[in-house]
Amino acid sequence: MPAVDMIQPIAVLKDPAEPACHEETCLAAALASTAALLAFPEDPLWAAWYPHGQGKSVRRGKPKDLRALQAEGAVVVTVGAAVAAAYPPREYPLTGRMRQLQVAGTELEHTGRPVSHAWPAPEGVPSLQIGLDTALGMSTGKAAAQAAHAAFDWAVSLGPECLASWVEAGQPARLLPLGRQDMAALLPTASVEIHDAGHTEIASGSLTAIAL
Fold first, then answer.
1. d(CA 162, CA 109)
2. Is 152 inside a domain boundary?
3. How many folded domains does the chain comprise?
4. Tell me: the pLDDT tens digits for 54-107?
5. What broad class of enzyme is this (predicted)?
6. For residues 56 and 43, what is the distance between their CA atoms, to the nearest angstrom?
């Protein structure tokens, strides 16, 4: 059970027939999380949810599940073979289709290679780079949530007009799998640092992700 009573639910595609990689899936989840902010700006739960831990739940679904979520109004983002769907925050426990999806088993092949989406950004449009610490051995579900935390904090810092221009440009972004030394080298230039609360998988306070 999440440590907060509100979460932003995110579903990622796990399709054995056409599997996406870990890195694509993490980036798709991060971009879906931020796109939901612009798609549902008037949702009242944003203001109650964001200052209290920015809890997210990443769940896995089949192609039919992602299609159903899109039909229900979820924001859907595709990165390579990866697909992710997101809503604004919801009270926990979840209801509807998202509740039926599983959290456990959200693991995909790690390539260790950077992935990008709508890159490079047009002139004058912000661009997002997310660094994920590979030394922590995070599962795809865990890493996707950490990438989404970093992307969301970065998107909020842009302000409404810049956020809109970024989304209209297709959300130019890169995800960088980084070893511990590379994370440390980029940390001074990061605008966002994500430290885990320690509820699952890794120790409390671990630096999991950065946004540049």
1. 34
2. yes
3. 1
4. 899 999 999 999 999 999 999 999 999 999 999 999 998 898 899 999 999 999
5. hydrolase
6. 16
Cis peptide before 120 (omega within 30 of 0): yes
The residue range of the domain holding 88 is 6-211
Determine, yes or no, domain membership for 1.
no
Strand pairing of 128-133 and 173-178? parallel
- Phi first, then psi: what are they for 106, rounded to 5°? -85, 75
CB-based burial, 64-90: b 16+ in 10 Å, e otherwise: ebbebbeeeebbbbbbeebbbbbbbbb
* Cβ atoms of residues 108 and 14 within 8 Å: yes
Give the CATH number for residue 107.
Answer: 3.40.1490.10
Angle CA 168–89–99, to nearest 5: 115
Percent of the chain with pLDDT over 70: 98
Instruction: Give residues with Cβ within 8 angstroms of 51, minimum separation 6.
Output: none
Please indicate, yes or no, if residue 89 is contained in any of the structural domains: yes
